[in-house]
């Protein structure tokens, strides 16, 4: 039942990574995405690879879920590699494929860029695999907190995100229900030319939108009846707290990144 | 009265952002053979016409952030920002014709209304396209070999799904608003 209420890729395994503060996870990933572009030799890439693979193992997420997240980009990773093989002309000729020369530089560059691609997608997908969308929302609210000074509606934004996330499964169910109801009246969403199909979604969308407006009105009324009046002084059900394991993860990341920055080629 | 409509506004934006995500999931299922034509932008357009700038941009931003928290593909900070928060926020630019469209809806001037809806949707779609286009250049740019024209990849890739989605969205918006002009008129 609980699973029904979670959209996205979250896989609950209650690992140490799952229990980490989402803010710390996001900060680490943010800086990883930036600093990986500084890697330029075997050691620095090795260190970043080590960090990503180590984190992946610690999440205890079954391999098939991780593979699933990577499916859409596998093609791109392989394609990038092959493209580099045939286009880049650096280094010396290693061998010929179908009469085309393959350079050593091409092999190297193709491998490096595909690896970077893979690591980036892997690490960013770890966040959504180990953190519920609502936790990420809480983290975003907390991290963007300073923007409040510039009148940026941080609290309102987080509130809207929470409401959206709560209503996605409900609305999904409703869409299904209405589409079944209309299908039973003979509306055909799946076949026919483009024009017919666009026309077929109207009997689906009108009741869906009308009921969404009704829902919004009811919810707004319920919120006001309970005295909601903006973010000032509002307390939270889920409090975020940085504990030892978060500090440990942060230190680990800083050490690895520093090591990679020291060992990279500066010539 | 003032705060009443503010809470209602927040909640409507939230629920329509959720609806955008739902329609994206649903369109994919219903039209699997027809390519990835998505009606995701329709709720954002609707909020843009109904609530103006604030409604359009905010609904877009929430949709972009929802995508970001449920499983994005990020390979560069700039690309991540452009492809998610920026792209969908820009869909809200459709609000540029909001005031005039509401007036036309009240006067029941159908020709003018259709024209304004088309212009608004077009501007919103172009905004989104611009963000994805540049984001795509960063994305493919970090993959392509030097000297390759990444903008062509980006143009073809992004155009191939945005153009059909734009056409479908425009058709749906016009039929929808003609059937229920109340949808773009706010309650207060």
UniProtKB/TrEMBL annotation, chain A:
Major localisation: membrane
Membrane protein topology class: Multi-pass membrane protein
Domain of life: Bacteria
Signal peptide limits: none
One annotated GO molecular function: transmembrane transporter activity
Main function: Transmembrane (T) component of an energy-coupling factor (ECF) ABC-transporter complex. Unlike classic ABC transporters this ECF transporter provides the energy necessary to transport a number of different substrates.
Record-given protein name: Energy-coupling factor transporter transmembrane protein EcfT
Lineage: Bacteria, Bacillati, Bacillota, Bacilli, Bacillales
TrEMBL record, chain B:
Matches recorded under InterPro entries: Thia_Transptr_ThiT
Gene Ontology MF terms in the entry: thiamine transmembrane transporter activity
Name used for this protein in its record: Thiamine transporter
Organism lineage: Bacteria, Bacillati, Bacillota, Bacilli, Bacillales
Keyword Iron-sulfur: no
Pfam families (alphabetical): Thia_YuaJ (PF09515)
GO CC entries: plasma membrane
Keywords, comma-separated and alphabetical: Membrane, Transmembrane, Transmembrane helix
Organism expressing this protein natively: Terribacillus aidingensis
Transmembrane segments: 7-25, 31-49, 56-75, 81-101, 113-141, 161-179
């Amino acid at each position: 039942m609980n699973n029904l209420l979670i959209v996205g890729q979250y896989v609950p395994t209650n690992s140490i990574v799952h229990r980490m503060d989402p803010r710390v996870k996001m900060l680490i990933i943010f800086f990883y995405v930036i600093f990986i572009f500084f890697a330029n030799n075997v050691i620095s890439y090795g260190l970043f690879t080590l960090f990503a693979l180590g984190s992946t193992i610690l999440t205890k997420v079954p391999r098939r879920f991780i593979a699933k997240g990577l499916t859409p980009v596998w093609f791109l990773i392989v394609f990038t590699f092959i493209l580099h093989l045939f286009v880049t002309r650096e280094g010396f000729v290693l061998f010929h494929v179908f009469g085309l020369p393959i350079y050593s530089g091409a092999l190297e560059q193709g491998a490096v860029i595909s690896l970077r691609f893979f690591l980036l997608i892997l690490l960013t997908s770890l966040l959504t695999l180990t953190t519920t969308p609502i936790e990420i929302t809480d983290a975003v609210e907390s991290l963007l907190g300073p923007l409040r000074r510039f009148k940026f509606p941080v609290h309102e934004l987080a509130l809207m995100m929470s409401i959206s996330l709560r209503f996605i499964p409900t609305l999904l169910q409703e869409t299904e229900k209405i589409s079944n109801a209309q299908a039973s009246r003979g509306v055909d969403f799946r076949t026919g030319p483009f024009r017919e199909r666009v026309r077929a979604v109207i009997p689906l969308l009108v009741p869906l939108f009308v009921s969404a407006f009704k829902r919004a009105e009811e919810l707004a009324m319920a919120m006001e009846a309970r005295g909601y009046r903006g973010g000032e002084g509002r307390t939270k059900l889920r409090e975020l707290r940085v504990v030892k394991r978060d500090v440990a993860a942060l230190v680990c990341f800083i050490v690895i990144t520093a090591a990679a920055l020291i060992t990279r080629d500066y010539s | 009265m003032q705060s009443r409509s503010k809470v209602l506004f927040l909640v409507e934006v939230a629920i329509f952002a959720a609806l955008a995500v739902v329609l994206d999931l649903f369109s994919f299922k219903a039209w699997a053979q027809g390519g990835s034509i998505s009606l995701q932008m329709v709720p954002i357009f609707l909020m843009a016409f109904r609530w103006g700038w604030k409604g359009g941009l905010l609904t877009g931003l929430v949709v972009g952030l929802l995508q970001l928290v449920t499983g994005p593909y990020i390979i560069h900070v700039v690309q991540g920002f452009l492809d998610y928060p920026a792209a969908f926020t820009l869909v809200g630019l459709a609000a540029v014709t909001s005031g005039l469209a509401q007036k036309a809806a009240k006067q029941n001037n159908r020709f003018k209304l259709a024209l304004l809806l088309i212009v608004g949707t077009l501007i919103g779609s172009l905004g989104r396209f611009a963000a994805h286009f540049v984001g795509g250049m960063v994305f493919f740019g970090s993959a392509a070999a030097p000297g390759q024209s990444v903008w062509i990849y980006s143009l073809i890739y992004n155009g191939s799904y945005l153009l059909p989605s734009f056409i479908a969205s425009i058709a749906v918006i016009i039929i929808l608003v003609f059937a229920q002009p109340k949808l773009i008129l706010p309650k207060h």
